[in-house]
C-alpha cells in the first residue's frame, strides 16, 4: 500500500430467503449475491466471506446471520445485503448492531449511512405493524358480517401429499446449499489452501456454517460437499 493510502475495507455478504420466498423472482439467493458483489466492487471493498440462510428475518438466531456477524467483528468488516430486510426484520436488532459498532449497508440503498439505516428499519417495522393492524380490522369486520373465517370450510384436496415432490424439494435445497459451500471451498483453493483437512480448518476459522448449520467442519464434511457438486 502506498504511503497515505486508505486501508482496504472488507465486506461480508449476507443473503436470506424464507421458505415461501425461495421460488419467487428477484428474491433468490443467487440474485442477492450478484447484487451484493456488484455493490461491494463499486465501493472498492474486498468481499471476504458470504453467508446465507433460509429462514424468517425475525429469527436472529439464524446460523448464517450469526456467522456473518462473527466474521464482521473479527475483521472490522461491513455487513452487506441486497436489501435491509435480508439482514433482519427487527428494528431494535439493527439499532443494537449499529450501537455495537457493526457497520451495515444495503445494495439497494447505496448512499445510506448508519443513521439512515436506523430510520429505514424503524419505518419498515412500523409499516408491518400497520399492515397487521389493518388485517386484524378487516378480519373483525368480515366476522361481524357473518363471514366464515378459518376452520373447516368443507374443502378437501384432490390428492394427498406428494412424497416424491417433497423429496425432490429437499434434494434441490440440499444441492443449492452445497453449491454455496463449494464457492467457499473454491475461494480457499484460490487463496492457496489445499487438502481437505486444511480446508476444514480454514472454514472453521472463518465461521462458515456446516451444511447442517451445526458442529465443526472435518475433512469428511469437505469431501461430501465437493462430491455432491462434482468437485471432488
TrEMBL record:
<feature type="domain" description="Resolvase/invertase-type recombinase catalytic">
    <location>
        <begin position="10"/>
        <end position="146"/>
    </location>
</feature>
<dbReference type="InterPro" id="IPR050639">
    <property type="entry name" value="SSR_resolvase"/>
</dbReference>
<dbReference type="InterPro" id="IPR006119">
    <property type="entry name" value="Resolv_N"/>
</dbReference>
<protein>
    <submittedName>
        <fullName>Recombinase family protein</fullName>
    </submittedName>
</protein>
<dbReference type="GO" id="GO:0000150">
    <property type="term" value="F:DNA strand exchange activity"/>
</dbReference>
<dbReference type="Pfam" id="PF00239">
    <property type="entry name" value="Resolvase"/>
</dbReference>
<keyword id="KW-0238">DNA-binding</keyword>
<dbReference type="InterPro" id="IPR036162">
    <property type="entry name" value="Resolvase-like_N_sf"/>
</dbReference>
<dbReference type="GO" id="GO:0003677">
    <property type="term" value="F:DNA binding"/>
</dbReference>
<keyword id="KW-0233">DNA recombination</keyword>
